[in-house]
Amino acid sequence: MMKPVFILLAVTCMMQSAFTQFEPNYDESKVPQFEVPDLLTTFNGEKITKAEQWEDKRRPELLRFFEEEVYGRVPGNLDAFSFKLLEQDDSAVNGKARRKQVAITLEKNKRSLNFNLLLYLPKGSPSAPVFLGYNFHGNHTVTHDPKVLITDAWNENNEALEISNNKATEASRGKRTNRWAIEKMIDAGFGLATIYYGEVDPDKNDFTDGLHALFYKEGQERPETNEWGSIAAWAFGLRCAMDYLENDGDISKVVIFGHSRLGKAALWAGATDNRFAGVISNDSGCGGAALSKRQFGETVGRINHSFPHWFADAFEQYNGKEEQLPADQHQLLALIAPRPLYVASAVEDQWADPKGEFLAAYYASTIYGLYGKAGITTDELPAVDRPIQNTLAYHIRSGGHDVMDYDWEQYISWAKKLFN
Ligand code: GCU
């Protein structure tokens, strides 16, 4: 029998070889030559020239591709959906906003899942547009507000946020206020709706918990090859939040926002549900806004290796074979057209490939053009901190992988022009 130390060595070597195989490239001169898959030619070669043809032919086949081979298909519908107002208060955010906390319950196959929506709404207007976005560690981390409930779902440990034993406590309250410019939103007439993503699907390579488990047939333990990974599950959760929000008379429009892996989820939610009035992708990178075929920074092989639960298993066929992808992420962005879309990068976030995010927005602009909407008209990356704000917007800000006040100031000013 092999000794445990040899097994450990063998496993470590295998893991290292997978990582060296998918070593990131940060050298622009080593980006492979590739053809950008055409938005206006169907998979069987038909040319598209009008928005109606895009909607009837090209959009559905691209949507199907992303569903079957990238994020994965949702295997069916819920049996029941319900919600309950847990509490509300009129004096939140320095007296400028109302707070509501709503529990949403999803039921399928006699199993159920609950998640809590935290809402801040500006006072003084009968109904307001809101930004809807997941947070990484619990609703109580986005604000110092002592009334915000602490999640008891599994939480990734984080020393800076004082989260240990995979449980959030009072110690992490307000620790992520830097990423959520709530008062700026309220002052501009916008509300915020946020959910802890771990309540919808815990972010670990384990398919026994979260949303997936609700949908299993007798004896099933993980999704089928073309079925959903966690990104599609988080996107599903956003659509369920929308089922509530569209019936809350205090809300006029919903713009979804997401940072990084949650930006990938926001884009997929926006592509699959046109009730979202707009989409904001903050540093979403590989499998989000960045073109996969550039193979710059994180690659398909690398992301599938590090996060095997994020995508459908079918996506693994493109590990190290980006040239074989029949579609790329600009086509995901185009699925959101003609609704407003903001793609944002950070100059030090090379892992997410800012240029690949920009180019995807640039190429997607073709479809915005079909609808007479303005997108990005040049393929030259704009200067740092010089946003281009059309229906399709883009900025690259100084600094690293994060959500900063600068980002929110841009999103708010852009959204004010489009939604207020
Ligand atoms: C990792 C991962 C990225 C992801 C990021 C995040 O860096 O490789 O794809 O976007 O985590 O979610 O913060």
TrEMBL record:
InterPro entries: AB_hydrolase_fold, GCE-like_dom
Record bears the keyword Hydrolase: yes
Signal peptide: 1-20
Keywords in alphabetical order: Hydrolase, Serine esterase, Signal
Residues covered by the 4-O-methyl-glucuronoyl methylesterase-like domain: 225-372
Domain of life: Bacteria
One Pfam family recorded for the sequence: GCE_fung
Gene Ontology MF: a single term: carboxylic ester hydrolase activity
Entry keyword annotation includes Hydrolase: yes
The name this protein goes by in its record: Alpha/beta hydrolase
Organism expressing this protein natively: Pelagihabitans pacificus
Taxonomic path: Bacteria, Pseudomonadati, Bacteroidota, Flavobacteriia, Flavobacteriales
